[in-house]
Amino acid sequence: MFALGILLASAPTASAQSPAAPKTAAATPPSYTVISPIFGQLVRFAMPPAFAPVAFEKTNGPSYIREAVLKGETVQAWTQMITVTGAKGVAGNPQVTPQSFAVSMAAGFKKACPDTFAVKPFGAVKFGEQDGFIAVVGCGRIETSADKHGETALIIAVKGSADYYTIQWAERAPSSADKPSIDEAKWKDRLSKLKPIQFCPIVPGEAMPYPSCVGKGFQKLNFPSQKT
Fold first, then answer.
1. Is 132 in contact with 126 (CB distance < 8 Å)?
2. pLDDT tens profile 12-62
């Protein structure tokens, strides 16, 4: 885990992404908005149209998880999954940063495939006023799974006002004895499909569709340049 942290820390931060091209009549259907209160904040992002909104959801004490899979798939048998998690109160711990939170998740992947693990950090990022860190991790062969499948995942770790959040987009692949080759362009495109990503205060008494958050303007996703 320590070595993984060094690898993530040594990676250059990514450059800002250019705006998406206007959709044409032949373009795929637009994403739809997903917004929900998770502990201390509203979490909003765009769900790609191929996904059903909720396949599984559970709050267990200070932990929250919600999973979405492609339409027609299940949480037991899926090829792609988008997961949202919340960790209550963790933002108050000064020893936890978005990068260290992402590292801890990546370490879980590495434990499942020590010989076929790969990681590509995208670096630090701001979502409005919230600090985040983004990386892609992958396993060529998950030793703990029955079919030894491969899996690659985009991990977005965000420090909220009181809690920590993640948004993950995972994709399974056939088992391989080799480390997966992480296609940076592909996963940055996946990241763009989740935007805009925003974290808003919870307004007491406000119900869906949460107009205080829906009506807000979004700041452009900004990868700060590396300072020397």
1. yes
2. 443 333 334 444 444 556 778 999 999 999 999 999 999 998 899 999 999
Is the Cβ–Cβ distance between 56 and 68 less than 8 Å? no
Given the structure tokens 């990681």, which residue do they identify?
119
* Amino acid symbol at 58: K
Residue for token digits 């996703």? 221
In this structure, are residues 182 and 107 in contact, taking their beta carbons and an 8 Å threshold? no
Q: How far is CA 57 from the centre of its chain?
A: 16
pTM confidence score: 0.84
Return the exposure string of 100-115: e unless at least 16 CB atoms fall within 10 Å of the residue's CB, then b: bbbbebbbebbebbee
CA 199: distance to chain centroid? 14
Handedness of CA 36, 40, 46, 52 (dihedral sign): negative
- pLDDT for 69-104, tens place per residue? 999 999 999 999 999 999 999 999 999 999 999 999
Dig out the tokens for 215 from the structure. 């009506």
Between CA 77 and CA 150 the distance in angstroms is 14
Helical (H) or strand (E) element with 110: helix 98-112
Provide the sign of the torsion angle of the four alpha carbons 151, 33, 16, 26, taken in this order.
positive
Tell me the per-residue pLDDT of 145-179, one tens digit each, with 9 for 90 and over.
Answer: 999 999 999 999 999 999 999 999 999 999 999 99
8 Å CB contact between 220 and 20? no
CA angle 145, 149, 154 (to 5 degrees): 100
The Cβ of residue 167 has, within 10 Å, a number of other Cβ atoms equal to: 22
Angle CA(146)–CA(147)–CA(152) in degrees, nearest 5?
Answer: 105
